[in-house]
Design goal:
Rossmann fold; alpha/beta; single chain; 16 helices; TIM Barrel; seven-stranded mixed β-sheet; Immunoglobulin-like
């Protein structure tokens, strides 16, 4: 057991610009993704359902491909079913009825496609592949974000909607350079005239790629990310100039960051994906709201088939535990398509509603940050290996109850050493070369008293170590092929009583580093040797090559484990990998752990601060399987302790159990006996 971090009063953003805007306070959304035939819906009946569910915002299909209002723009088609309505205007009816009940209406817009007529009239608006072919699906033609439709005409649609309706916000669907269509067929990189011209400006002299294996594909991905960020910022400013109280729900440059939690056929399940996206957004910009829209169906081709109820509830628990606003996403209207997963979801949405004061001004509060590799830096097998390292370290931190926030690699320099100052430990998972600005920020972080635990190739560029804090003179060799690592091992340090450590397999890569003289080293690499037949399986030699290097730098410290310990855990699931890494993390953290607990490893601990106090969420993962979430097992008894900033009375309340917890104070620690844990628990220390 280790000491926990101090619980300090939450820093409430009362002075932030726009803090009084409605969307700065917690809300819950219900999206009805309307089909063309649903335009005659009964708005009062839908609102009855939404409010009973616990939602107070309605994400409604408004315009783009088909308009739910009588548009006057010839490049936007009116829904022919509007004639069924006495008003001829679904959007007007919905907003009037919703506002009468105090429900907000958010406009869902989809500008990704137009019909053939519009495409024929404006061929320069269209996506075209390297062969000059348009992307056509179900008679709709895909639009390119670089072209005049997005860059000019979309703003005419927004102006029309804003002039007619008091919408409470906007969301733009499928805002992407769509390389894959609804049938999941790869359609290539757009080669329209606008893309050719703009890419040439972005990357002079580089050829426009055709597919992911093209040499300039990563440059293209960076180009499209920059284009979309710029477009979203323009759209946000356009909306704000006409209706400042209406947020744009989109990417990092929008008012509210959007993430869709969903499943997909043939996609491996990562049980923490929703939590990852929310945490990365909140770590980079704690005051910016995040909305998680959880799809109630299992995949786009199967929109009538509901998601597994246990998985669906996990999406929502991840969202609220990390500080996001939860949202439900269905096809059609609630009375037309039945989704089994909605009943359990209703309980969580109502829970958030009933405790929205607790979730106001929610901020991440962990003292450890795990860096997520930049997806636009490397591709192919190298990217997969980096991701495996990251996921392996994630699992180890969760199972050993070290709460952490997710820090996007590409945002390190933006956050800066001051922004990182609230962390005591930053974990770098096999990142390879990092940006020079990020390396400088990390060195400053350590010099000021922070600690870094790095694995694999993090901060290594050729033979050079980028971080002075690591205490590494150079990298003299890389062992990253099967021929060089097959049958190689590492031997942990002996236990305090002298008991030798058990060897672990060297899986992945090992980097031979030359440390400075004052650095401390540990573990030992064993050389490769024959591994078959068994009669010849001997000859491993201890080498003067360490499994970890520690170094004091300024007021802080670092440890680099120059091998892929996380990939070993992610691939083999052997707890020795996890424990070797976690013990180094605990050594670096010392007194700065967030919590102590005797909960089993199947429970994730997430910490935050809000207007109510210090929040601890416990997420029961006992039902997690290889490609599923099943029924979680009840867990009890267990204890949890946090450390107080000073000895004082403290109140603790378990929100799911609905009762106060007896608090035991000992010196600067507060401990509670936990109620039986089902799906999740939220405990607020006040």
């Amino acid at each position: 057991m280790h000491n926990a971090q101090q619980v300090t009063a939450p820093a409430l953003p009362e002075e932030e610009p726009g803090a009084d805007l409605w969307w700065r306070r917690p809300f819950r959304t219900f999206q009805t993704n309307l089909r063309e035939i649903d335009v005659g819906l009964d708005v009062e009946r839908v609102l009855d359902y939404l409010q009973d569910f616990g939602a107070d915002a309605w994400l409604l299909s408004v315009g783009g491909i088909i308009s739910g209002y009588p548009t006057d723009l010839d490049f936007q088609n009116r829904n022919p079913g509007l004639a069924q309505r006495s008003s001829g205007d679904l959007v007007g009816d919905a907003i009037a009825a919703a506002h009468a009940r105090g429900v907000r209406v958010l406009a869902r817009m989809d500008f990704s496609k137009v019909d053939r007529r519009v495409a024929e009239e404006h061929p320069d608006w269209c996506f075209v592949d390297a062969a000059g072919q348009r992307q056509v699906y179900n008679s709709l033609v895909s639009m390119c974000p670089s072209g005049p439709y997005y860059q000019e005409k979309v703003f005419e649609i927004l102006a029309e909607v804003l002039a007619r309706y008091e919408v409470d916000g906007f969301f733009f669907n499928w805002l992407t350079y769509g390389e894959v269509d609804y049938a999941k067929r790869y359609r290539g990189v757009c080669h329209c005239a606008s893309c050719v011209e703009r890419f040439a400006e972005f990357a002079p002299g580089e050829a426009l790629p055709e597919k992911p294996r093209s040499p300039t594909y990563l440059t293209w991905k960076r180009f499209t990310a920059a284009m979309l960020d710029d477009w979203v910022a323009r759209a946000r400013a356009f909306i704000a100039s006409r209706r400042p109280e209406a947020p744009l729900i989109m990417g990092d440059t929008a008012d509210i960051v959007f993430y869709e939690a969903n499943n997909a056929v043939d996609r491996p399940l990562w049980h923490h994906l929703c939590s990852e996206h929310v945490s990365a957004a909140k770590t980079s910009s704690p005051a910016t709201p995040v909305l998680v829209n959880a799809a109630a169906f299992v995949d786009m081709p199967y929109r009538l088939a509901g998601e597994e109820p246990h998985a669906y509830r996990q999406y929502l628990v991840q969202a609220i535990a990390r500080g996001a606003y939860p949202s439900i996403y269905i096809m059609g209207t609630p009375d037309l398509i039945r989704y089994e997963c909605l009943e359990g979801a209703r309980e969580i949405i109502r829970f958030h509603r009933d405790h929205q004061d607790v979730y106001a001004h929610h901020r991440p509060a962990a003292r450890t940050a795990l860096v997520r590799p930049d997806a636009l830096k490397i591709a192919g097998e190298a990217a997969a290996n980096s991701r495996a390292e990251y996921e392996g370290l994630w699992a180890g931190l969760v199972e050993r109850h070290i709460p952490f926030d997710v820090l996007a690699e590409e945002r390190i320099a933006d956050v800066g050493s001051d922004g990182l100052g609230r962390y005591r430990l930053i974990v770098l998972p096999d990142l390879g070369r990092i940006a020079d600005a990020a390396a400088a920020v990390l060195d400053a972080f350590v010099a000021g008293g922070g600690r870094i635990l790095a694995t694999g190739s993090s901060g290594l560029d050729g033979g050079t170590c980028q971080l002075e804090a690591f205490g590494v003179l150079r990298r003299s060799a890389v062992l990253d092929t099967r021929e060089l690592t097959w049958s190689a091992h590492l031997v942990p340090d002996p236990a305090p009583d002298g008991t030798p450590g058990y060897p672990v397999a060297l899986l992945g890569a090992y980097h031979l580093l030359v440390p400075v003289a004052e650095a401390e080293t540990g573990m030992t690499r064993l050389s490769t040797a024959p591994y078959g037949p068994p009669e010849k399986c001997y000859g491993h030699q201890e080498l003067a090559q360490p499994g970890w290097i520690s170094h004091r730098f300024g007021s802080g410290a670092t440890t680099i484990m120059p091998w892929t310990v996380g990939r070993g855990y992610r691939t083999l699931g052997i707890s020795a990998y996890r424990d070797l890494f976690v013990e180094q993390a605990l050594r670096l953290l010392g007194e700065d752990l967030d919590v102590e607990t005797d909960l089993p490893e199947q429970v994730e601990v997430i910490v935050g601060r809000s207007a109510a106090g210090y929040l601890v969420h416990l997420r029961n993962l006992s039902g997690a399987g290889v490609q599923k979430f099943g029924t979680p097992l009840p867990i009890a008894p267990a204890r949890l302790s946090v450390r107080l900033s000073q000895e004082q009375p403290v109140r603790a309340r378990a929100l799911v159990a609905g009762r106060d917890l007896a608090v035991e104070l000992a010196s600067d620690r507060a401990s509670v006996e936990l109620p039986a844990l089902q799906l999740f628990e939220a405990i607020v220390f006040q």
